[in-house]
Amino acid sequence: MTTTDLSFLLQSIAWPLVLLVAWLLADMLYQRWHLPRVTSYVAVGMLAGAVNLPGLTTDISGLPFMATVALSLVLFELGYRINLRWFLANPWVLLAGLLESGLTFGLVFVATGWWPELGLHVRLAIASLAMASSPAGILRVVHELRSAGQVTERVMHLTAINCLLSVLALKGVMGAYALNLSGNLAQAAFGSVHVLFTSIAAGVLLGFLLPKLLKGRLAGSADGATVVFVLAVILLTTAAHGLRLSPLLAALTFGIVARERRVHLTHNQRNFGTAGDLLGVFLFVYIAALLEWSDVLSGLLLGLVLVLVRGLAKVAVNMALARVSGITTRKGVMTGLALSPMASFVVLLVGQTEWVGFDLAGETLAAMAGMVLFLELLGPVITQRALMAARETHVAQDS
Q: Tell me: the pLDDT tens digits for 235-245?
C-alpha cells in the first residue's frame, strides 16, 4: 500500500472512526465516573484535531451544514420546551434572563479592555457571544440525567433568552461594523433587521404549517412524526442558508410556535431518537476539532478571565432574584452555574457571520478560543453537578 493509498484510507474512515471512539469512550466514562458524555465527545474531537487526523477539516463539503442541522434540531427542541405563558405568570424569570445577559455583556466587554490588541468591534462581538448558553450541551446533560424541576425549567427558558439576545446583539455589532466600513446607515440597518425578522418569520410560518401536515396522518406513528420533524428542520435550515438568514434563530422560533400550536411530541420525538444522538456526537466532536491549538494556548489567560466574569454575572443575577422569582437562593445559584456551557452555539454562530461577510469573525473566534476550551470541556460537568445538587435528577435521587 502506497503512502497515497494510506492517506486516502485514513481520510475515508476518519469520521466514522472518531465518532465510534467518542461514543465508546463516553459510555465507558459515564458508567464508571458519571462524567457527562458531552465532555468525552469534546475531548476526543480536540485530540483528533490536535493530531490533525486527515479528514477532520472544514474543507470537506457538507460538514458545516451537518453541524448546523444538528444544532438546529437541538434549538427546535429547546424552543418546544419554552412556555411563553410562564413569562407572563412569573415575569421575574424573563427579567432575570434580560439582566443576566446584560450584565454578562457589560462585564465581558470591560474585561476584554485589558487586552489592548483587541479592537472595539471584536470586543463587542465577544461580549455578545458570551451572553449565550449552549442549548446542545445543556439539553444533552438534561436528557442524560432525566432532569426535571424548577431549576431545570429555568435553565431551559434562560438558555433560550440568552441565545436570542446573543443573536440580536451580534447582528447589531455586525451592523455597526458594516456602518463603520461603508458609512451607509440604511444599508447597515437593513441587513441586520432583515436577517432577524425574516429568520423569525420563516420559523413562525413553518410552525403554523406543521400541525396541518400532521393532522390525522401521523397520530399513531411516532417514527413517522419524528421523520416529519427532522425533515422540517432540515428544510428550514437549508432555506435559511440559501437566503442568508439565521437557521439557528429560525429553528428556535419554529420550536416555540410548534408548542403554541399544540403539536404534541413524545420524549423520543423531541430528542429525535437515534438520529439525534448520532448528530449530537458529531456536533461536539466537530466543534472541538475546529479549535486551533495555537489560538487556545495564546488565549488561555483571557479565556480564564472571561469564564470567571461570565460565570459571576450569571450566578449573581440568578441568586439575587431567586426568592422574588419563587425559588430558594441555593437553587438560584445552581441555576446560574447550570448555564455554563456555551461553545457549540457560539462557534457555529461565528461561522455563520463569517459566511455572510463579517470580516472579524476569525479574529473573534481566535480571541475566544481559550474560553471555548474551558466551557466546552468543563461546562457540561458544571451543569451536571448543579442539577444533581438541585436534586432534580435520577442520579441525585438514587444516591
A: 999 999 888 88
